[in-house]
Amino acid sequence: LRMMLIAGSDSVQLIGRLFDDAKQKLIGFIMPYEQALAPGVNIGGEPGERAKFSNEEKREIIDKLCRLIKRLQARQIIHGDVKPSNLLLCSDGQVRLCDWALASVNGDNFIAYAVSDHYASSRRCCLPQEPLALEEDLYATGVSIWEIWMEKVPFEDVEEDIVDELVMGGIRPDVQAVDDPEIAALIESFLDAGP
Q: N or C: lower Cβ tally within 10 Å for the chain?
């Protein structure tokens, strides 16, 4: 909640909180229903469908994503889990982040308790007990741009339990598969800016 509030308009807005009365604890947040850029797992446990966008719409979304990350970086905010399923295309046309559970402020030495291997840098997979760095979000943004453009999860054809090993070894999404040279160069610039 703290990081959502710090992020302000770059975060999806909170409508309410969800409590488990039996356990007397907060279990989630209520947010407006917005369109995720990629399917996550729905409450029923099944993945949703990937939204279809034209190349022009993808360019616009990618531009908004880049501006969003630039604003967060300028404020020293680390989201910690940048990926299309945490990016929402909101009804006002803006791209915002949700799922701030791993977020921190640069320098606070927060150690994330989880990692999304498909979007993580080699450093993050090799050193999961190290504090998050701003560069982690830059790398994950490059991977996210690749996914938005290619309309598929990177390494989706690789068994889930070995993705982290491949990432630790330095594997990156196949930028040569991107059919737009400007988008490919943008992806490379974000991946290269990673840790």
A: N
137-179: per-residue pLDDT in tens? 999 999 999 999 999 999 988 988 899 899 999 999 999 999 9
Tokens of 43: 């409450």
Query: Domain containing 65 — which CATH number?
Result: 1.10.510.10
User: pTM for the whole thing?
Assistant: 0.88
Q: Residue 154: what residue type?
A: P
CA dist 90 → 32, 152, 157 (Å):
9, 21, 30
Do 98 and 71 touch, CB atoms closer than 8 A? no
| Coil vs helix vs strand at 167 | helix
Rounded Cα gap, residues 124 and 146, in angstroms: 19
Number of domains in the chain: 1
Gap between the Cα atoms of 151 and 51, Å rounded: 9
In a domain, 104, yes or no: yes
Closest CA to 90 of 9, 3, 183: 9
Per DSSP, 143 falls in state: H
Q: With H, G, I as helix, E, B as strand and everything else as coil, classify residue 173.
A: coil
